[in-house]
Request: fold
Amino acid sequence: MRTNLRFRPVAVIGAGMTPFRRRMLDTPQELAWEASRRALDEAGLELRDVDCVVIGSAPDAFDGVHMKGEYLAHGAGGVRKPVSRVYVGGATGVMTAISAWYHVASGLCQKVLAVAEEKMSPGRPHPQSVFRYIWDPITEKPLNPNLIWIFAMEMHRYMNVNRVSKEDIALVSVKNKRNAKKNQYSQLGGDITVDDVLKSEVLVWPVQLLDVSPVSDGAAAMVLVSGDIARRYTDTPIWVEGVGWTLDNTSWPGRELAYPRYLENAARMAYKMAGIERPQKEIDVVEPYDPFDYKELHHLEGLLLAKKGEAPTLMREGFFDVDGEIPSSPSGGLLGVGNPIAAAGLMKTISIYWQLKGTAGGMQVKKSVHTGVAQAWGDLMQASTVIVMRN
Amino acid sequence: MTVHPLKEEDLKRHPVVEDKPKARYSYTAGQALSVFLNGLKEGKILGRKCTKCGRIYVPPRMYCEDCFVPTSLWVEVKDEGVVMTAVASFISWTRERLDHPEIVGTIRLFPSTARDYVYPGLFHRICCSYEDVRNMTIFGKIVKARWKPREERTGSINDIECFEVV
Reply:
């Protein structure tokens, strides 16, 4: 059953991104410009055609510049235009596309440029320290937490409740880095084995070095237009058919971490809008957010593409491989391509767009695809954003 | 039209502009957490109960996020609970290597049941061995707060040294 929402159809007609690397010698604005220019070129538009700009960027503290939305504006084509910046932690990337969607769906703008940028390399001694300020200052910060702790806690809880082994989780890292070899933008594509993951440095048990996505710089951009005019620019517009996003509370110590209920809520919202009743049967390709390898399994379950605790088994059986039933992270994901936070989420959306358009090149999955889903996740185990697209 | 990645070997050689902003914060503990912190000084873990839905908030909150009405009752929960998850950290918050792992986790405090999705819970250190974490035997164990001696308590979350198996 479709919802009875009244909104204008919205299509994606172009996208572009920079390669993701450990450190770029370009400023955040230069990166944003590069991605924006590529997206406009693919769409066949000039900046004067664009009505509104949406910028997505995660904490200002990474780039080391406050007001990052305003700071990025000229590189993102936002000068003398209505510009808004969205930010929901790691979920920002997909939220940037969702926000661009409602700019168009509402009828406010006809053509929107969505730009996401992140430069994680400037922070010293390590971007890790920036995360100190996401914790509750009274009840959590005095314990000197670092970000990997919270992921490790969630991962260990997930492993304990669902009886998942480290080997099964490592398979995600192996798959994504292998997929990333085909991606010209990727930072860490390559052939690794489960053994390599299990022998890598233990950061916070059960998290080891190769369980984690790298620190990266990069930008990504996308052009979304009203359905009425999409075919002026392309014969193959890709339609945004469902969006969903929800936030849970910050009280992660008082909440079951083995299953992301906030993601299920976001997914159900998006699926309802897109008329998807049986996700596992109707979705052809998926890009779940994978800053850590177990996160992809966790999110596949939250996206209702696997039953609770079943994702590791399906992963082992090749269900989510690039030639499997539902290819998952065909781009290589954050583990393989890199993790410039906001840009990584938009990269996932772009990957689905290219898959549906059939222009993903070496990354193109074997099966024919009609419906794709991209998802991002963020904050203190609490935010999720989901977008459904069709060709 | 292209971007310019820095070569891997040059990563540590570029000039760095050092700047330490004197950004220091005096956070407010707020209405609920102030009482909670004073409770810790007394060796009590205090929570707030929503009388409409019965949910107990630890750390306490003055309003119920579900019912969106004031929580109207102070309740003392036990300083005992179940280990929900535990991890062993070999890195500090600045990502420097630690020789001895620091063990932390979350504790579901009583009263609560295993079926609860939300429960009174704390994030804290757990006094156990790395082996207990590694083979998951610490999961589901009942633990109790090890308090600092009364005269050393300052009204901070660190008034609890850690949670240890009873």
User: Anything to note?
Assistant: The helical segments of chain B are 30-41, 130-134. Residues 28-165 of chain B form one domain.
